[in-house]
Design goal:
Blueprint: H1 2-5, H2 10-13, H3 19-31, E1 35-43, E2 46-59, E3 62-72, H4 74-96, E4 102-107, E5 110-116, H5 120-124, H6 128-153
Antiparallel strand pairs: 1-2, 2-3, 4-5
Length: 154
């Protein structure tokens, strides 16, 4: 086969290449930039996904040939689809939870911040931001009231 291919263009060696692929090769020959494409192919009833890299070989400022590397990325693409589906299931689960988690940041006994999960609105009727303000102002008000009361008792 090697003798049959020497001196022939890729289109002569592989006449079954479709017009899109022909245009891709011509583009690489014209502009000298590598081209990476992802295609879904079918061989019989087996579907597979390939990443094709068309890499120009340049001599004296001219593309003299294009090296083509084809890599089967079917498993990676399937894993990406499964990951997106899993993330979507997780997001729907979290969105449906009516409980929520919050944390309080204290420094020297003083409230600095509160952090509320997405279930805050469903449980309290307030958004995370509104609830944080209510807590901060409520605790400051309560602390001020307690401090005034303890001074009166002295």
């Amino acid at each position: 086969m090697e003798q049959d291919t020497i001196g022939k263009s890729i289109f002569e060696v592989f006449p079954f290449l479709n017009e899109k692929v022909r245009e891709e090769y011509l583009k690489v020959f014209e502009d000298g930039n590598p081209l990476i494409t992802v295609e879904t192919n079918r061989l019989g009833n087996i579907e597979f996904i390939t990443e094709t890299r068309k890499i120009p070989i340049i001599e004296e400022s001219k593309v003299i040939r294009v090296v083509t590397v084809v890599h089967d990325i079917s498993e990676r693409k399937r894993a990406e689809v499964e990951l997106r589906a899993s993330e979507e299931r997780y997001r729907r689960l979290l969105d449906s939870v009516t409980d929520y988690i919050y944390s309080v940041k204290l420094e020297s006994g003083q409230l600095l911040a509160t952090i509320h999960g997405p279930g805050c609105l469903a449980v309290t009727g307030y958004t995370s931001e509104e609830y944080m303000l209510i807590l901060i102002f409520g605790i400051k008000w309560y602390t001020t009231k307690i401090n005034k009361r303890s001074k009166t008792l002295e």
